[in-house]
Amino acid sequence: MYGINNYKNELNIAEEVNIGRVIEKTNYIYTIADSNYEFKKAETVSNLKSNEVFVGDFVEYTLFDDYNLITSVKPRLNSVTKKASYAAKSFHEAENEQLLAANVDQLFVLIAADQRFTLSKFERYVFTFQQDNIDMHVLISKGDFEDLAEDIKQKILSVYPNFKVTVFSNLREESLIDIKKLFLKDKTSLLIGASGAGKSTLINNLLNDYKMNTNEVRIDGKGKHTTTTTKMFYSDNLKSYIIDSPGFKTISTTRDIDKSVLFEDIQKLSLDCKFNDCTHTHEPKCAVLNAIENGEMSEAYYKRYKENLRVAKGQLRHEQRKKVK
Ligand SMILES: Nc1nc2c(ncn2[C@@H]2O[C@H](COP(=O)(O)OP(=O)(O)OP(=O)(O)O)[C@@H](O)[C@H]2O)c(=O)[nH]1
Ligand SMILES: [Zn+2]
């Protein structure tokens, strides 16, 4: 329940230890779920700072007088983060990474069909969020804008044919049936996406039986309600835990980016290049250029690789200039 029993087994935590899962956080009050699907309000002990406990965390808690105290946060299997959206106050201030949720098995990134789309945006999402133990999907929402949705899907698949991309519309029941199949039983998923991408509407559709209610959809597509807190829901029919998170404007990360997430094919091939420091641009006996020549690697994929290198170099120069100032 709430993954608590599995987690206890995996970490060899004794049966009698009280472990809860944080499902919501408002100011200093947490809602935790226990393994019997009961919800409890809890606060943290004084030496545990509120920014150290987050939705998705497994926590140890104890009943103290008549309220629950979270005494420790258990080790995270992973955490999903992005660069904090507030601007750093000065050049010298370290840029902060903000936690979106902890212990996530599946990640669904919503991209609305009527949003401006570029492959760089998609790549930035993947570089920021992809991790080995997270099953990542892109969901193109508002698929009722059929041509726009199909165009985004094709743009992604023409370069990254193996990426998991699914189009859906909250207004179309058949597409919601397909979406429901993606959510794994007993697993925790996190929905993220730009503000207004349709996360909350999707969660409503996943939690309740689908009810067509077009009155709730404004013609201009602007949200009438915005999600401001991160919250975990349990879907009884999917037997799955789903975390809704506040919409964002832009995405980036301060962590080191692992390009192999998308360009592993190039990294593997480069082991066969004649020169160790091959730039795969003009060198003789370059395995990458050969693969393109033979049609084993697409030109489009190689172009994205070079574009990402170019952007990374630009960023590096920018960082260095900032340090000099
Ligand atoms: N055309 C169309 N509109 C949709 C669809 N899904 C949601 N909307 C509308 O888009 C707006 C935003 O939807 P929300 O579900 O609130 O978006 P959100 O991602 O939760 O937004 P934040 O709370 O700001 O993060 C609302 O007016 C919805 O009615 C869809 O599939 N098609
Ligand atoms: Zn090469």
Q: Could you characterize the architecture of this molecule?
A:
About 5% of the residues have low confidence. With 325 residues, the protein is an alpha/beta fold. It starts with a helix and ends with a helix. A hairpin with a 4-residue loop joins strand 12 and strand 13. The structure holds guanosine-5'-triphosphate and zinc ion (ZN). The site of zinc ion (ZN) has 8 residues, from helix 7.
The CATH class name of the largest domain reads Alpha Beta
Radius of gyration of CA atoms, rounded to a whole number? 22 Å
* Low-pLDDT segments, ≥5 res: 210-224
Overall SS class? alpha/beta
Within the largest sheet, what's the order of strands? 10-9-8-11-13-12
Under the CATH scheme, the architecture of the largest domain is 3-Layer(aba) Sandwich
How large is the count of helical segments? 8
- State the distance separating the first and last CA atoms: 53 Å
Q: What name does CATH use for the topology of the largest domain? A: Rossmann fold
Largest sheet: 6 strands, mixed
Shape: globular
Helix content: 25-40%
How much beta, percentage-wise? Answer: 15-25%
What are the bound molecules?
Answer: guanosine-5'-triphosphate, zinc ion
Number of strands: 13
- State the domain count: 3
CATH superfamily of the largest domain: P-loop containing nucleotide triphosphate hydrolases
